[in-house]
Amino acid sequence: MLKITSQRDEVLQRIVLQVEGRLAGPWVDELDHCCSEYSKATHDRVVLELTGVTFIDVAGKALLMRLWQEGVELRASGCLNRCVVEEITRAPRQTPSCETRGPSLSRETQDET
Prior knowledge:
The protein has 4 helices and 4 strands. By secondary structure, it is an alpha/beta fold. It has one domain: 2-Layer Sandwich (Transcription Regulator spoIIAA), CATH 3.30.750.24. It has a 4-stranded mixed beta sheet with strand order 1-2-3-4. Helix 1 (about 25-40) packs parallel to helix 2 and helix 2 packs across helix 3.
């Protein structure tokens, strides 16, 4: 099961999606759809808060990589999730449009959250 809760930050023009549960199986497509819909509807920067995620399968990791490449900010705490996010954010982004959507959360900042 996957729970996605949204919170819009008007000042920073971003939508924070708090994700809880397992990012695996059909829930990967659900998160993909949710991110896409919020991004289209609000034109705000999307931030994924992954602190409540208990498991990420290969498809979930691939989705997070693609979303990050598209400019989605990834936040995580805990050993497993932080490790996954650090692995994804180590590679440079490949899409030029990401620079206009705002900076990604650095690994140093993740440790403070």
